[in-house]
Design goal:
Strand order of the largest sheet: 1-3-2-4-5-6
CATH class of the largest domain: Alpha Beta
Strand content: 5-15%
Structural class: alpha/beta
Length: 201
């Protein structure tokens, strides 16, 4: 695991799932185009990835598709468990159309080829801006939002989270207030846009 620090008062924490240090350096150079400086961490195993999701607490994940021990689809499973609101961007040398579709449907924000990294800064900035309203939600409220977006009934959400139906309804009302969204359809659309639920759900 390698951490690279750039001095700054405000930073974006970027976790790179990448087994090539040369490619990682190219990505770091592209990150210089961001208006906000970055702190990066690079991992190349599933165990290190899961550890960094918890300890490094990334603001964004940049993931190559195929590494020696695991791939982007496996990484997305861990993302949904540990960092469901963090944007996940596939940054890879090449990928089949089938795999690209599977990753996007599984929750990836976008796909960027290493041969054309010029979009990276914009994609990161846009993804983080879209998710900014989520910062006002508690962890439990994000769980409720995810269940609502998956189509779960209020009683099912209450049973799964071991809370009362009234508490679920209270959370849902507060979520709408904090996100400035006024109906269930709007909540579902937003949850899908921020990849809180995969399109395969």
């Amino acid at each position: 695991m390698q951490y690279l620090y750039r001095p700054a008062k405000k930073t974006i924490r970027v976790l790179m799932v990448e087994d090539s240090e040369l490619d990682a350096e190219l990505i770091r150079n592209e990150l210089n185009h961001l208006s906000i400086p970055t702190i990066t961490s690079r991992v190349d195993t599933e165990a290190a990835f899961v550890s960094d999701l918890v300890d490094f607490t990334p603001d964004v994940v940049l993931c190559d598709h195929s590494l020696a021990q695991f791939d982007a689809l496996s990484a997305l499973v861990s993302m949904r468990r540990f960092r469901p609101t963090t944007p996940f961007i596939l940054v890879t040398g090449s990928v089949s159309a089938e795999t690209a579709v599977a990753c996007i449907r599984g929750g990836a924000e976008d796909l960027i080829l290493k041969s054309n990294l010029s979009r990276l800064a914009t994609v990161i900035s846009d993804a983080m801006e879209l998710r900014r309203p989520l910062n006002s939600l508690t962890k439990r409220q994000i769980e409720v939002l995810r269940f609502v977006a998956e189509g779960s009934r209020t009683s099912d959400i209450a049973r799964h989270l071991n809370i009362s139906v009234k508490t679920v309804e209270s959370h849902r009302t507060e979520i709408m207030k904090r996100l400035d969204i006024h109906d269930i359809a709007g909540l579902v659309r937003y949850a899908i846009r921020v990849r809180l639920v995969p399109l395969t759900t």
